């Protein structure tokens, strides 16, 4: 029989300074729950399956509490799930699903914060179901998590070490989290050779079965070779073993020897990325930083004249190794000029962005943009690029360069809406000038409405006048009413805002907004009345939402009697919703008695 609590021996000396490594682990690692495999489930007889499904439904009710997250303190729900699985075990003690039911019992205890009881069940699974490594491994993992949650990090690490020692446990997907924690421990304990050998094996073993864990291990190994040993040869070997450093291994990867990587472009992309992901230095490490870049620059050959990304990175590494900003800009510009005209406007934009801090180069490259060759959408994207990635000066140059004939009404509307969102003082006037060029009268009007909404919401009457011209529009009436209503609310013109929301007419959304208008106007009765209509008229999540809002309205109105009546109604009618939990917490803060399902 396999036992979990065997000490890892003297191999690990636990250091108090390392506790911080493990404090934040559990929350991230309770992200998924093991289910019974389909093959085992299909092999159950009808009555057995019916009873197991009933237990699973009780579990699902407990887990769905609080928007799909297991919430501590929901004792009755987890107790019900626990009892249902216990009933199944007693009725079908020889079922192949017993290990699963026992594991779910342990998880029910664990998620209800009863960790001692959970550990007893986890230990039972480990001892009595060694032929179910999937659940035994999960039991070891969660037992370690439970120790960690109790602050017993030494016990957590000793528990997880059982996974590392057992080949059946080690290959389970859930084992990866524990193994990764142990690898990190070895690194922090300055036992780098052990850690890298260990993490390398883990990265290979989990490469396709648990890509997230494998990627984390890969990143730790890569950082070791890039920052600690600066060993390109080992980095190349590792790249071949794991078939690339990306999230997934490279398909049809046939390289077996490191010298085959010399002209393998995916390797050089991965190499560049690996170095640049591990280049963080503190302010007092300037000399160390230069040595780092000098070292890796010497491993990046001066080649691939036709590969802009490679050339730009190499030029940038030269700058980081001690070169000047002007030399860098000159070299970048030379790379552009070497293939000037290649790849069209996209390459021009790319190098404009590279050189965005060097205006003289940007202006020169800007002249190479071929506006007539662009489709309308590309023109808009290019203007957005010039404003957003370069600066406003180049953005306005782009606006002035656009030939009138290349933009249709839709593109003009997009451009005007984008420009109107800029904070520059010229933005509104420029946007209005573009809107005036739109020949579609309704599209022109709604574009002007959007500009006013961005820049002049205080000019409510002007905004309302433009919106009124769109009230009969099939395309834009809804937007016009909504924009008017929001502007009127900002202006505190409540009755007019109510009328605009009612004209907007998206039920029940408009009623929420009408209720908000009445609430902000201090008309509590009418605000609550609109919310009552929603609660009576709808059958989905709007009912508890509207009820809780009613309680908030009456609380703001300083009417505790009506507030408490609504809270009680929520507790009785809307169990299993987040509003029920919030109402329960609210009553607790008020010092009021608990109300259960039968009250």
Low-confidence regions: 1-31
Number of helices: 33
What would you call the shape?
flat
Mean pLDDT: 88
Distance between the termini: 50 Å
* CA-based gyration radius: 32 Å
Oligomeric state of the chains?
single chain
**Number of E-state strands:** 0
Kindly summarize this structure in a few lines.
With 599 residues, the chain is mainly alpha-helical. The protein has 33 helices and no strands.
Give the key terms:
599 residues; disordered N terminus; mainly alpha; 33 helices; flat; 67% helix
Describe this structure in words.
The protein is mainly alpha-helical and 599 residues long. Helix content is 67%, strand content 0%. It is built from 33 helices and no strands. Helix 7 runs antiparallel to helix 8, helix 28 runs antiparallel to helix 29 and helix 31 runs antiparallel to helix 32. The longest helix is centred in the first third of the chain and has 19 residues. The chain is flat and about 80 Å long. The N terminus is likely disordered.
Question: Which helices and strands, and how do they pair?
Answer:
Elements: H1 20-23, H2 25-29, H3 38-42, H4 46-64, H5 75-91, H6 98-111, H7 115-128, H8 133-149, H9 153-165, H10 167-170, H11 175-188, H12 192-205, H13 211-228, H14 232-242, H15 265-277, H16 286-297, H17 308-320, H18 325-338, H19 344-354, H20 359-366, H21 376-390, H22 392-401, H23 409-420, H24 427-435, H25 441-455, H26 460-468, H27 477-490, H28 494-504, H29 509-521, H30 524-537, H31 542-556, H32 560-573, H33 578-589
Helix pairs in contact: 4-5, 5-6, 6-7, 6-8, 7-8, 8-9, 9-11, 11-12, 11-13, 12-13, 13-14, 16-17, 17-18, 19-20, 21-22, 21-23, 23-24, 23-25, 24-25, 25-26, 25-27, 26-27, 27-28, 28-29, 29-30, 30-31, 31-32, 31-33, 32-33
């Amino acid at each position: 029989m396999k036992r979990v609590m065997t000490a890892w021996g003297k191999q690990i000396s636990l250091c108090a300074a390392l506790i911080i490594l493990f404090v934040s682990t559990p929350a991230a690692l309770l992200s998924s729950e093991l289910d019974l495999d389909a093959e085992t489930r299909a092999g159950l007889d009808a009555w057995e399956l019916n009873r197991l499904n009933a237990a699973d439904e009780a579990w699902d009710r407990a887990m769905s509490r609080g928007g799909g997250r297991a919430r501590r303190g929901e004792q009755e729900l987890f107790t019900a799930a626990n009892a249902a699985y216990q009933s199944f075990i007693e009725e079908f003690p020889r079922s192949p699903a017993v290990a699963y039911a026992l594991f779910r019992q342990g998880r029910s205890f664990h998620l209800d914060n009863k960790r001692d009881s959970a550990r007893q069940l986890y230990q039972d699974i480990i001892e009595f179901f060694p032929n179910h490594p999937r659940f035994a491994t999960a039991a070891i993992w969660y037992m370690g998590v439970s120790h960690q949650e109790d602050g017993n990090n030494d016990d957590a690490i000793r528990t997880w070490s059982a996974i590392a020692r057992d080949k059946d446990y080690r290959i389970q997907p859930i084992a990866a989290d524990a193994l990764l924690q142990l690898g990190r421990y070895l690194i922090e304990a300055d036992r780098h050779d052990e850690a890298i050998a260990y993490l390398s094996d883990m990265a290979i073993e989990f490469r396709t079965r648990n890509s997230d864990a494998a990627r984390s291990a890969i990143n730790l190994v890569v950082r070791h070779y890039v920052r600690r040993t600066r060993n390109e040869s080992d980095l190349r070997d590792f790249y071949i073993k794991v078939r690339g450093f990306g999230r997934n291994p490279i398909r049809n990867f046939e390289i077996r020897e490191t010298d085959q990587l010399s002209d393998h472009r995916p390797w050089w992309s991965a190499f560049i990325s690996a170095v640049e992901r591990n280049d963080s230095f503190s302010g007092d490490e300037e000399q160390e930083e230069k040595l780092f870049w000098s070292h890796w620059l010497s491993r990046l050959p001066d080649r691939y004249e036709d590969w802009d990304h490679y050339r730009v990175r190499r030029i940038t590494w030269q700058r980081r190794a001690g070169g000047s900003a002007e030399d860098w800009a000159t070299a970048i510009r030379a790379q552009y000029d070497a293939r000037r005209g290649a790849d069209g406007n996209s390459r021009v934009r790319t190098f404009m962005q590279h050189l965005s801090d060097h205006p003289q180069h940007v202006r020169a490259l800007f002249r190479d943009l071929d506006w007539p060759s662009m489709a309308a959408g590309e023109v808009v994207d290019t203007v957005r690029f010039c404003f957003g990635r370069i600066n406003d000066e180049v953005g306005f140059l782009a606006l002035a360069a656009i030939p009138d004939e290349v933009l249709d009404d839709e593109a003009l509307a997009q451009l005007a809406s984008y420009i109107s969102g800029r904070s520059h003082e010229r933005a509104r006037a420029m946007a209005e000038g573009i809107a005036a060029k739109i020949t579609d009268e309704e599209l022109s009007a709604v574009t002007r409405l959007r500009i006013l909404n961005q820049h002049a919401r205080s000019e409510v009457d002007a905004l309302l006048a433009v919106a009124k011209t769109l009230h009969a529009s099939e395309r834009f009436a809804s937007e016009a009413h909504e924009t008017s209503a929001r502007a009127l609310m900002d202006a505190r013109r409540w009755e007019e805002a109510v009328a605009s929301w009612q004209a907007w007419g998206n039920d029940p959304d408009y009623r929420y907004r009408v209720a908000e208008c009445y609430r902000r106007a201090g008309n509590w009765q009418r605000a609550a009345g609109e919310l009552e209509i929603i609660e009576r008229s709808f059958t989905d999540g709007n009912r508890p939402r509207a009820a809780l809002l009613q309680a908030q309205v009456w609380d703001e109105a300083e009417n505790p009697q009506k507030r408490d009546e609504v809270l009680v109604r929520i507790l009785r009618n809307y169990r299993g919703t987040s509003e029920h939990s919030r109402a329960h917490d609210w009553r607790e803060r008020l010092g009021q008695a608990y109300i259960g399902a039968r009250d």
